[in-house]
Amino acid sequence: MLGWSQRLIKSFILPFDTKFLFGFPQFRRFQEVTLTRLHGIAENYNISYNIDARFHQVTDQQQELRESLNNSDQMTQRELSAIKIWLKKLQRTTKKLDLKMSSLEETMTERNKQVTKDNKIRDTNVSNLTSHFISQKRVMDQLVKDNSLLKKGMEMFREVVKRQGVRIATLEEQIRGATKNEILPPSSLVAPQELNRTPDNKPLVSPGNEPEAMALEHRMAKLRLKHDQRKKLQDEQQQQLIPGKSGVAPMASHRQNEIKNMSFPEGETHDIQTTGPSLSMTDKPFSIVETTLEKTSGMETTRRPPQQATKEEPPGIEATRTPHVTGNKPSSIHAPKLHITEGKSSVMHTTNPPPKVTEVPRHIEQRTKMPGTICNVDSMLSFPSSSTENYATFGKGLREALHEFSICSWVKTNASYIGTILSYATEDNDNKLVLYGRNGEAYDSLHFVIGDPAFRELPMVPLTDGNWHHVCFIWSSIQGKYWFYVDRRLSSTGSRFQKGYEIPPGGSLILGQEQDSLGGGFDSSESFVGHLAGFAVWNRALSPGEVSGIATGKGLPRGTILKLADASALHGLVQRVDCTCLEHCL
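Predicted structure:
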């Protein structure tokens, strides 16, 4: 641009004579002013030219800025969409947590009610136990008192028995003395001559008639005993008539009063065995001692029937009689122990020892198959262990969409958790319908899932006690109502559970495992361990009467769409048992 201004100056100034022009000072000023202005014009032209370049540069920068803004806008939109997705997930998680918290609150409320009820029952039981303990203590105190009274009575009884032994010895001495002195009684006390006649010891027996001989010998022994008894009775009466010997009778009456005054607790039976003085009498019948005790002390003796009283025993057998004191009859006291020995043969007139009792073996009844009462189960599936290989599949699954359903089955398990009874999965949701209880949960519950994440928690007690229980899960999408029955009783119910929801057909239906993917993704902690019998599915909601009818063994209601017989395959160690009645399944 500077060369152009020089050319312009030369075009105006060169025509004049340079010497002439420089000679005038005005021309010089004009020249300076002109040069100054020309320089300003040149600078302004340069500025305008640079402005266009800058405008182009600013336009380019604006375009770049617009592109960067568009890129940032797109990134912002992507981030917002990701945030929306995370927000939806967070809402689902929050909803699950709210449901869990609500169910936990309900469970805690129920548990608190149950604990309160149990505490009341426990307090009642404790009070009843305390009162029972107090009554038992009173009974024990009374027993202690009765025991002390019994001990006193026993001491008195021993003393009486001892005195009776002394009296018997005295009577024997008196009888022997009277026999030696041969003092005859008055005529009124003399027995007839027929009674003094002693039969022969060895009657004649014809050969070949041994049974009759034995019977005759028994009769003769009885006659001898009766004769001796009569004779000794006469001797006793004779001794009572002897002067100076009359003090025996008052003593006997005194002892009789002592024994009658002995008291024992009523309503109790005491078996007391007391061994009195052992008397060994040779050629002296026992009847005189027995008669003497009856006459002097008023004691009652226990006799057996005639067919049991007389019995032949080998020589040397000692007849033992043990007195018994019975609480119901305190006055009945048997004679003390006596040992009687008579030569070679001993005829026993005392109580025979009890015969040996041979224990008859009990008849062991054979276990027979009892008729069943619940005969509508058709078959049973057994799941022996918590393995992911143990499950049953239904090939056809659900053939139609369900807006209502009822699932009923008999369940028996010894595990601490219920496991997965049923799971139904589709391609878009692996938890379309699930009934499961996981091992290791913080509290016992059974999850009833329809279209994940919607579910309800159901009480599990008493399903894990090892007994058969009938369960029914019923759901209707009309109001979102559901019912859970255990052994004909309504255990849980609610509404607004997947209202208007539809369970689609064409999925994978499995018993015993929970599906985390279509037909797979099993977890051993969610496996079912136990027995399922009479499993059936209806496409409608059953009434309470129909549920009760199934549980009591009546026929199945109409509308069944699946039964255990429809299971297409059994996997692992699962076994099927064909049993019409529930009682015959195991």
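Summary: The chain has three domains: 2-136, 163-183+214-347, 379-584.
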